[in-house]
Amino acid sequence: MQSPVETAGSPARTYSPKEDTTVKASIDDSCIACGLCADVCPEVFEMPDDAEIAKVKVDEVPADAEASCREAAESCPVEAIQLEE
Length: 85
Ligand code: SF4
Hints:
Elements lengths: L23 E4 L8 H5 L4 E2 L8 E2 L9 H10 L5 E4 L1
Antiparallel strand pairs: 1-4, 2-3
Iron/sulfur cluster binds next to α1.
């Protein structure tokens, strides 16, 4: 009797960060710490209470947060958010 172990077609996640289109976000010094980006896309941005500018939490924008990340970048009042494809 054989037990069905993980060798048989585990639903392989073919996700590969190096091959997929990835987006990186960064914030420059013009940030006025309004916190909007962290409200719009908390998956990527945070606005720590003691920070002078917002922070990017992730190296690469998760695919499911890409739309809100773009919205945050477009909503930033001083255009401090850069997205690098
Ligand atoms: S929306 Fe722009 S100005 Fe406001 S915290 Fe984010 S990066 Fe800074």
